[in-house]
Amino acid sequence: xxxxxxxxxxxxxxxxxxxxxxxxxxxxxxxxxxxxxxxxxxxxxxxxxxxxxxxxxxxxxxxxxxxxxxxxxxxxxxxxxxxxxxxxxxxxxxxxxxxxxxxxxxxxxxxxxxxxxxxxxxxxxxxxxxxxxxxxxxxxxxxxxxxxxxxxxxxxxxx
Length: 159
Hints:
Strand content: under 5%
Largest sheet: none
Number of helices: 8
CATH superfamily: AhpD-like
Number of strands: 0
Distance between the termini: 27 Å
CATH class: Mainly Alpha
């Protein structure tokens, strides 16, 4: 797919707001301890796989590798429920990410909430949900305007 519109050019203030969200999310793992960077990259990658965003899949696969993820865990992410190499905390985060990504017509019930809260404090769960919401927004922007996949280099965006 080739780029349709340079959205950064036409909406710089909105993009600044998105970048501010990314800076907040980076502080969540660097300073707040809400989650590990590797978990964040798994969540961003899983959401991007669900949404079919090639640019974000490329980006977050590379960032996940840079954060120490193994090929096995990256390849298995689409079928994470069928594997034994994700931790209970990662499983909770992935289930929460899927429910929030596929929210239309689906209820985020008390069982899922309770299972997720076993692994995340209230503040960390809010932070995780903000990260999920943000990657969903990026996926929609990138897919709508044809952001080209394949050229991203890990560490290219500093938040």
